What we know:
The protein is of the alpha/beta class. The chain is 29% helix and 15% strand. Among the domains are: 230-311 and 351-405, no CATH class; 489-571, Arylsulfatase, C-terminal domain (2-Layer Sandwich).
Amino acid sequence: MRNKMKLLRALALALWAGGYVGGSLAANAAEPGPNILVILADDLGYSDLGSYGGEINTPHLDALAANGVRFTQMYNSARCCPSRASLLTGLYPHQAGMGVMAQNDQGLPGYRGQMGNNTVTIAEVLRGAGYHTFGSGKWHVGFPGPIERGFDEFYGFLEDYGVDSWEPRWMQRFPTDRPARTYPPGEFFATDAITDHALDFLDLAEQADDRPWFLYLSYQAPHFPVQAPPEFTAKYEETYHVGWDVIRARRFARMKELGVIPPETKLSALSPLPRPELAEKSGVPGDGMHNPAWEMLDLDRRADLAQRMAVFAGMVDNMDANIGRVVEHLRATGQLENTLILFMSDNGACGEWETFGFEYPDLDARVHGNTLLNPNVLHTGESLARLGGPDSPLFSYGSGWANAGNTPFTLYKMYTHEAGISTPFIMHWPARLRERGKVFTSRYAHFADIMATCVDVAETEYPATFAGHAITPLEGISILDTLTETVPADRVLTFEHWRHTAIREGDWKLVSKVRALGGDGFSEDPKLELYNIRLDRAETRDRAAEHPDKVARLRSKMLDEFRRTWVLPAP
């Protein structure tokens, strides 16, 4: 039955792609299997890339999109640790034990802060299928680390959510007996170094044998602290003085032109502030509950925020340039044709914690949780010009620009509204997909599908047991099935992070921004919002009052799914 289903799907993909190569999903048995490159950005907004409507210069990712497929409805799990656990294991994050941040054990199965013995990673599965397995960048899914979880080689950082990109001491090479690159003073930048080591790993594979490889290229960019080489920031020093209202409107129009959002989509209002009490202390103008219009800010504040966004754009631009280095290496070595490339972001743009952002003097001095150093810092003159460079303080760009990054949606990372869980997703595989530049809109997918896709294209099996432990059955579905529309249009997906909850079933989505989940269900009766996502992707018209029966049914199903997938019991 399994082989019959694969044959049917292969035939459907051939029709979809206008000329599927090879007659089956695998390469000819005499040929090596496909290489797999998973590229993960950190805190990239839905509309930041040029191919998704943004003004940031991302020619290399745009070229992959133009020669591949762009998904408009790919979902992550709202924040770094849960999303990464889901991607690596093919499960919902709570099933993997990562319903909270890494190394934050809440004493419940879904909230252990590390991936449990019931999980197996893509690296473990593919290494068993004969692949070289490499990782470079951000880990942040607890311990054991990448070498213990199936990776042959790794460079990057294991703990915490971000690094000072100008400081090499945060990075480590594993196994520890492996040589690591060294950089002359002033020449280290984290995104560049992550790419340098990734290319070194590909050289190792090429020198070793003709086995295929899996590379998990997990950038820290553009997570705060927002930093970029000055030559990248300089490209954008005039771009953002028009303000986020104009940038949102321009992106919104461009997204419609590109087909990323339907023509009937409405632009959401300026988003609520994540921490209104901090905004009040900082003197953010407006109603105290939402990001203000750009024109409400004084000239010095506009200059400060425009430069912060210029650095953010430079950070994205630099990441794209590094991705270009990897793609060019694949092209030069004849590997690009038969390499499956998947690009995505771990959550939506980050609005922490209010319009003006925050900063801290260095990573050693920062504190965790909700206590932030140096809120409401205003840069002028020479300090403004230094922002993002090696002698700059470490800063975020604020909720106003995150709102623009998440165009056309409302809210930000950490929320289960579309802004928090929607990612640009690019799929590129010339040897298998002949159709170019398709914007795929008719089905939605999830990070758990990445594992299923890797298992599929490598023609291996997801194990029932591993290292003596029973493995939780795979939740994900191969993205190739999504492309051929063999996945049900009413597939059920659920989301929970920081007690923000959502369920998607077909066109309908039930979601709440109220942090009311606890124990065995809702600790109080939250305000549940209902949206028809097909007609209202930006969640601008709450239809809960019109459809109380649908709200009740989806609420019940969501709680049932939460019990099944270890969201419940909740702390």
